[in-house]
Design brief:
Blueprint lengths: L2 H13 L2 H6 L23 H12 L4 H15 L1 H9 L13 H26 L4 H14 L9 H28 L3 H31 L1 H13 L20 H11 L4 H14 L10 H21 L20
Helix pairs in contact: 4-6, 4-7, 4-11, 5-6, 6-9, 8-9, 8-10, 8-12, 9-10, 10-13, 12-13
The structure holds fe (ii) ion (FE2) (2 copies).
One fe (ii) ion binds next to helix 8 and helix 9.
Length: 329
């Protein structure tokens, strides 16, 4: 049977009970936090004072920090790209089962939507950012689309999302720490609670893959190896500024995020190690020869990457992002 048909069958089999699985990882809209819980309330008399406080505190942090935060916010706002990608996978049908995979994707998207929402409002109020330039980048990113490099393969795509949810957990968590140090309690709280959402979503995707490993271990192992071999492309890969070419901003953005301590090459390696542990890669049995070799590759990869990462020197160039330049009127 062709591989994608096997994958479809595995996904349809898992779908029968998937609501019971993902139900544990989601929170109803009325019970979960909403962006307004962490922002000045526009119906309150103290609104203007609270905004003034945010503007004052926001002066404390440097451009590297704001650029990193804006990049994180924009990649959150490119959510339509990820939702449409996931709905197109083999074995996922948006007209199908009410309680099936498509329900997970929609509910996950709905939770994620709050992340870009709260960060966008906070960044707007901070007064530190050229919002028009940021908005142009967001529009470009959604319009350009994004090739995750997984085709319609649910195994590879769920490796991607398991990885990305943990990467965003790390980066929002790092923003929270930096903000707390600078006395920006509001930003610290919102970033920490966003990180909490990312962890819940990460655990859901880890569980989906664990279930796939239980029924199709060799193909799952090979899919994981393939994803790590070609490196996980970050959504920020496709960022560009106004009037610039497609995907022209990533290298500069990545340097800035590393300098700010928001997301580094060592975080990437750490995430890989955590995924190896989460799926107990060293203990999976019943593998074909090829899958067993894939497992060996995955187990050795973190150490190999650490040797390479320790040689990376991050430039201290001032990149002059349009996102933080003053608006010229
Ligand atoms: Fe998010
Ligand atoms: Fe996420």
């Amino acid at each position: 049977m062709p591989l994608n048909n096997v994958r479809k069958e595995v996904m349809l089999t898992l779908e029968k009970d998937i609501e019971a699985t993902f139900g544990q990882f989601l929170i109803a809209p009325e019970e979960i936090w909403q962006p307004t819980d962490f922002l000045p309330n526009p119906q309150s008399d103290s609104f203007m004072d609270e905004v003034e406080e945010i503007r004052e505190l926001s002066k404390e942090l440097d451009d590297d920090f704001w650029i990193s935060l804006v990049g994180d916010m924009i990649t959150e706002e490119a959510l339509p790209t990820y939702e449409s990608w996931l709905l197109d996978l083999d074995g996922i049908n948006q007209h199908g089962e009410e309680k099936g995979w498509s329900s997970w994707i929609r509910r996950w998207t709905a939770e994620e939507n709050r992340h870009g929402d709260v960060l966008n409002k906070y960044i707007y109020l901070s007064g530190r950012v050229n919002m028009r330039e940021v908005e142009i980048t967001t529009q470009h990113l959604i319009a350009d689309g994004f090739d995750i490099g997984t085709a319609r393969d649910p195994y590879k795509t769920f490796v991607y999302t398991s990885f990305q949810e943990l990467a965003t957990f790390v980066s929002h968590g790092n923003v929270a720490k930096i903000a707390r140090k600078a006395g920006m309690k509001g930003l610290a709280k919102m970033s920490k609670i966003i990180a909490g959402d990312e962890m819940r979503h990460h655990l859901a995707y880890v569980e989906f893959i664990r279930q796939i490993f239980a029924v199709d271990p060799s193909e799952m192992m090979i899919a994981f190896r393939d994803m790590m071999k070609y490196k996980i492309e970050m959504p920020a890969m496709y960022l560009r500024e106004s009037f610039e070419a497609k995907a022209s901003l990533f290298d500069r953005f990545s340097d800035v995020a590393q300098r700010a301590g928001v997301y580094t090459a060592f975080d990437y390696i750490d995430i890989l190690e955590k995924l190896n542990e989460a799926w107990k890669i060293d203990k999976i049995t019943g593998l074909t020869d090829e899958a067993d070799k894939a497992r060996t590759y995955l187990m050795r990869l973190p150490d190999r990457m650490k040797r390479i990462a320790s040689r990376i020197v991050i430039p201290d160039t001032d990149y002059n992002f349009k996102w933080v330049n003053p608006l010229i009127t």
